[in-house]
Design a protein that fits this description.
One of its GO terms (molecular function) is DNA binding. The protein is an all-alpha fold. The protein folds into two domains: 29 residues, no CATH class; 68 residues, DNA Binding (I), subunit A (Orthogonal Bundle), CATH 1.10.30. The chain is 55% helix and 0% strand.
DNA sequence: TATTTGATTGTTGGG
DNA sequence: CCCAACAATCAAATA
């Protein structure tokens, strides 16, 4: 995995506050995803299950691809009315990699802003 | 401390 | 109600 080592981008700029009431603890796909973790544990790959849903509150920031899918999914569906979820996703990812960083910029901006918002929520929840 | 890997984010439609 | 592929990103856990 070619990941930039030493990614210590700890820009803790907690200023704005966001009240997270969280009346209904919806575990989205967490429970479902957990099954993979459970399977991994069963195989003995991981010693302990990395339950990440411990802290119930601030949802994670959406990636640029998340915004991209929101913005493009309808267009792709329009061009491919017969395409199902998997087809759309596959094609979507293909075009995502196809577009240049400049095109991804707007989505990255959204992702960046959401990340900032996530930091605020996290800080507020803490 | 650095790397790794699991978990989470969002979409739609179906089982 | 949960999962399917896709990419990105974070955070816990391990080496």
């Amino acid at each position: 995995m070619p990941r930039p080592a030493a990614t210590t981008a700890a820009a803790a700029k907690a200023s704005s506050r966001k009240k997270a009431a969280a009346p209904e603890p919806k575990a989205t796909k967490a429970a479902g995803r957990k099954k993979e973790a459970a399977a991994a544990v069963a195989e003995g790959k991981v010693t302990k299950k990395r339950s990440k849903k411990e802290a119930g509150g601030p949802k994670r920031a959406r990636s640029a691809y998340m915004y991209f899918s929101q913005a493009t999914r309808q267009e792709v569906k329009k061009d491919n009315p017969d395409a199902s979820f998997g087809d759309i996703g596959r094609l979507l990812g293909e075009m995502w990699k196809n577009m240049s960083e400049k095109d991804k910029s707007p989505y990255k901006e959204l992702a960046d802003k959401d990340k900032n918002r996530y930091e605020s929520e996290k800080a507020a929840a803490a």
